[in-house]
């Protein structure tokens, strides 16, 4: 086994991004797209985060495993990530496929990796990094690789300190003084299961943890495997890393924790998606897209700069190619190619934008059918809402979750976690009050 940091290079690391989940908790944003393809912060998509972290870590051999509603994700990847002919770099999609030996879909994260070993093993690599496609964070993977080699680990799991309230929703690790993982409990609900996993106070200073509150090490879903150990651990029918592979590996392999200190958000629900997006519009966002030491890459669109015609903008992110007339936009995200009419007020609203500019012929045709044009009309009030791509919001509309259940389905809209969502391509007629 290599034991020096000099042995780590982009040529012996393979990165695998898990993008195959159905994303049911992000419905209806995942109604027509996979979870990693969900738009983020006006102009990005969730999958841009792990891929950018790989590129910024000088790891440029990336596979993306997909399964559900993957057409838009495929299109985004093919239009975004192109390395030159003289490098060995690639971002390649592996979709679930039927073979003569197996006709089933991916049954879980471990099953997805197992079914694609035939592709992975065609490359030279000593280490494989397995990543989630729906998390918001910035990490230099060279640091976790260096620790992996230094500790002679066979499997390293990235963990983050969380408080007692957060721990029951995540997989929690218990480590010894050498950072070796000695116990793992998936989503420990009962205090009797959670209390033994609490980090000893004396380890807080060593790990750089501030404050005196109880802390627990939660799995980030980021794994570094030695090649041979990965093959050994997948030589069975277990389907999931968190539920099956990791607990078994702790008993038989050298498994260590890499403790990450920084912002990390698992964008698994509408509420977490909503709040993480709106935080980008704050004065000091917890995740900084303006950090050019480790930029977030995405598809180059060659759109014109946005045009503001007498609008009042306060704590908002305005993406490329927008036209905002005399409107008020507060604490909101405005996605690419968004059109906002005069007299409209947006408050705590995420516009995911549009895939195209509507032609004059299309606008006239829809007007004849009493349908609004793509974008947001005049004199609307929209708050605590997500407007998905290519939606048509008419004039004089009110969209708010006030007085509605936390979760509710309607022909025109959905309410999830107390947030109104207009689905992709949805139409809200003139004068509608939601």
Features:
single chain; 434 residues; alpha/beta; Spore Coat Polysaccharide Biosynthesis Protein SpsA, Chain A; UDP N-Acetylglucosamine Acyltransferase, domain 1; 2 domains; nine-stranded mixed β-sheet; eight-stranded mixed β-sheet; 11 helices; 27 strands; 20% helix; globular; disordered N terminus
In words, what does this structure look like?
The protein has 434 residues and is α/β, with parallel strands linked by helices. It has two domains: 5-279, Spore Coat Polysaccharide Biosynthesis Protein SpsA, Chain A (Alpha-Beta Complex); 307-428, UDP N-Acetylglucosamine Acyltransferase, domain 1. Residues 1-6 have low confidence and may be disordered. The longest helix is centred in the middle third of the chain and has 12 residues, at 241-252. It is globular. Strands 1, 4, 5, 6, 8, 9, 10, 11 and 12 form a nine-stranded mixed β-sheet that branches. Strands 15, 17, 19, 21, 23, 24, 25 and 26 form an eight-stranded mixed β-sheet that branches. The protein has a three-stranded parallel β-sheet with strand order 14-16-18, with no helix packed on it. The protein has eleven helices and 27 strands. The termini are far apart.
Task: Report the average pLDDT across residues.
Answer: 92
First-residue to last-residue Cα separation: 62 Å
And the CATH topology of the largest domain?
Spore Coat Polysaccharide Biosynthesis Protein SpsA, Chain A
Percent helix:
10-25%
Let me know the CATH homologous superfamily of the largest domain: Spore Coat Polysaccharide Biosynthesis Protein SpsA, Chain A
CATH class of the largest domain: Alpha Beta
* Number of helices in the DSSP assignment: 11
């Amino acid at each position: 086994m290599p034991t020096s940091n000099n042995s780590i290079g982009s040529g012996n690391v393979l990165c695998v991004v898990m993008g195959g989940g159905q994303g049911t908790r992000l419905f209806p944003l995942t109604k027509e797209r996979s979870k990693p393809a969900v738009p983020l912060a006006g102009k990005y998509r969730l999958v841009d985060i792990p891929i950018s972290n790989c590129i910024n870590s000088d790891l440029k051999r990336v596979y993306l495993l997909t399964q559900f509603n993957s057409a838009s994700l495929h299109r985004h990847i093919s239009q975004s990530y192109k390395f030159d002919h003289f490098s060995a770099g690639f971002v390649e999609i592996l979709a679930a496929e039927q073979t003569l030996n197996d006709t089933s879909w991916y049954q879980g994260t471990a099953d997805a990796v197992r079914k694609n070993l035939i592709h992975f093993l065609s490359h030279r690599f000593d280490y494989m990094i397995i990543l989630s496609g729906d998390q918001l964070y910035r990490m230099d993977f060279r640091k976790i690789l260096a620790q992996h080699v230094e500790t002679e680990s066979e499997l390293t799991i990235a963990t983050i300190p969380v408080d007692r309230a957060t721990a029951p929703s995540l997989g929690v690790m218990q480590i010894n003084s050498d950072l070796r993982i000695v116990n793992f409990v998936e989503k420990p609900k009962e205090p009797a299961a959670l209390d033994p996993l609490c980090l000893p106070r004396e380890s807080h200073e060593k790990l750089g943890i501030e404050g005196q509150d109880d802390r627990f090490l939660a799995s980030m879903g980021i794994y570094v495997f030695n090649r041979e150990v990965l093959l050994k651990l997948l030589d069975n029918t277990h389907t999931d890393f968190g539920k099956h592979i990791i607990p078994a590996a702790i008993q038989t392999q050298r498994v260590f924790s890499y403790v990450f200190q920084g912002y990390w958000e698992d964008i698994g629900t509408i509420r977490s998606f909503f709040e993480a997006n709106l935080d980008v519009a704050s004065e000091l966002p917890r995740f900084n897209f303006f950090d050019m030491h480790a930029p977030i890459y995405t598809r180059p669109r060659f759109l014109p700069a946005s045009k503001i015609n007498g609008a009042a903008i306060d704590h908002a992110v305005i993406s490329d190619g927008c036209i905002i007339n005399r409107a008020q936009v507060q604490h909101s995200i405005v996605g690419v190619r968004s059109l906002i009419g005069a007299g409209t007020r947006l408050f705590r609203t995420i516009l995911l934008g549009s895939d195209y500019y509507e032609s004059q012929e299309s606008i006239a045709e829809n007007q004849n059918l009493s349908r609004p044009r793509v974008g947001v009309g005049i004199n609307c009030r929209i708050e605590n809402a997500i407007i998905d791509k290519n939606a048509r919001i008419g004039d004089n509309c009110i969209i708010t979750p006030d007085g509605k259940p936390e979760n509710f389905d309607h022909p025109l809209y959905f309410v999830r976690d107390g947030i109104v969502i207009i689905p992709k391509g949805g139409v809200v007629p003139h004068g509608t009050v939601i």
